[in-house]
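TASK: fixed-backbone design
INPUT:
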């Protein structure tokens, strides 16, 4: 049984409810990486990557490394290195089916974020991948993005959440335990919380690059 009884069906209904954007919000989008965006990306150690499969199912994946880990090739193209992960490669599978991509760049302490939308492809150009070498390891592939939209996103979500305020952070014993959650979700593998945590610790210590 559908739990939601009142849903918005049209853009007109939506705009009547939330209003329309200001002139600043409507005109802040550019279609290239200017010097301001270049500086923001160079200082960002973390981004989220949104992709969608051919059938429309969506995924958002984090990417992070030392500031400057994303290579800016020119005003229309950037490359995100693919560091070792869990080998699910959900984002890359999606890109092979549907090239459209959305990125949010974050800088710790900066409440505004940089959003970039465009199309992506998986590349193995050795001369480019070498530019993203880290800890002695060159990535085996990269996610090359052709920029279509580039703009600063306002800080309201970060202000409301107090994300960068250490006083709002949970104490360690109050936080969820990811290993416990993974053990519960992967019941068929016969791995308890301790075994999952051991596997995670090994991966974090030995397979970052």
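OUTPUT:
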């Amino acid at each position: 049984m559908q739990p939601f009884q009142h849903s918005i069906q049209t853009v007109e209904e939506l705009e009547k409810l939330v209003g329309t954007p200001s002139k600043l919000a409507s005109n802040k989008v550019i279609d290239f990486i200017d010097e301001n965006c270049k500086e923001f990306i160079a200082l960002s150690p973390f981004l989220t990557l949104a992709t969608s499969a051919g059938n429309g199912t969506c995924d958002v994946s984090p990417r992070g490394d030392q500031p400057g880990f994303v290579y800016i090739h020119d005003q229309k193209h950037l490359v995100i290195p693919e560091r070792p992960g869990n080998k699910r490669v959900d984002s890359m599978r999606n890109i092979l089916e549907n090239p459209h991509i959305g990125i949010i760049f974050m800088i710790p302490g900066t409440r505004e974020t940089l959003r970039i939308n465009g199309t992506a492809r998986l590349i193995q150009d050795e001369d480019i991948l070498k530019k993203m070498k880290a800890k002695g390891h060159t990535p085996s592939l990269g996610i090359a993005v052709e920029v279509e939209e580039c703009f600063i996103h306002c800080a309201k979500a970060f202000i409301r959440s107090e994300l960068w305020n250490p006083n709002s952070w949970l104490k360690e014993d109050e936080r969820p335990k990811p290993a416990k959650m993974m053990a519960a979700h992967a019941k068929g593998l016969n791995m308890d919380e301790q075994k999952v945590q051991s596997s995670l610790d090994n991966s974090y210590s030995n397979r970052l690059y």
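COMMENT: Residues 2 and 11 are 22 Å apart (CA to CA).
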